[in-house]
Amino acid sequence: MIISNLKDSGRIELLHPLFKRLFDYVKAYSFLHTRLGRIDLDGDNLYIMNSEADAVPQEKQLLELHHQYIDVHILLEGRERIGWKAADNLTQEVKTYSSDGDCALYGDIPSMWIDLLPGQFVIVYPEDAHAPCIGEGKIRKLIAKIKL
Questions:
Q1: How far apart are CA 68 and CA 48, in angstroms?
Q2: Which of 102, 106, 69 is nearest to 89 (CA)?
């Protein structure tokens, strides 16, 4: 897992060939006033979900795990808490992994919590089980998907 600010993304961009393309695109537009939905940058290799969600109480959110994609959660508006636990330490499977949705769900308690503010992002790899959208009220965010 990597946590940073959009203004500091240059250091992160060296870690994956599609990170620079993603962050350049995100910095070039204001997404708060654009329609919600999928934005294709490179088909299924790199796309962004411009989303708005009702936050979930911490005790009700499950951990999710992906195998085919890296997730980049970029907060636009609101406050978001994200839980984290190493995939190797998961024990309470709730939903078996499906390649169709690239997701498995777990009921484990996260071992760490991070709080994001607008302009901050978190990158989660397949070894990073994460519980997003925790908080109160509405959360407006981008979720970029980068195919491995």
A1: 15
A2: 106
Residue 60 vs residues 94, 113, 134: alpha-carbon distances, Å: 13, 14, 9
CA distances from 31 to 36, 49, 75, 84, 120 (A): 9, 11, 11, 26, 14
Cα dihedral 108, 112, 117, 123 sign: negative
Q: Print the domain residue range for 54.
A: 2-147
pLDDT tens readout for residues 62-87: 999 999 999 999 999 999 999 999 99
Q: Please state whether the predicted TM-score (pTM) of the whole model is above 0.90.
A: yes
Number of domains into which the chain is organized: 1
**3-41, pLDDT tens digit by residue?**
999 999 999 999 999 999 999 999 999 998 899 999 999
- Residues in contact with 59: Cβ distance below 8 Å, sequence separation at least 6, in sequence order: none
Supply the CATH number for residue 95's domain. 2.60.120.370
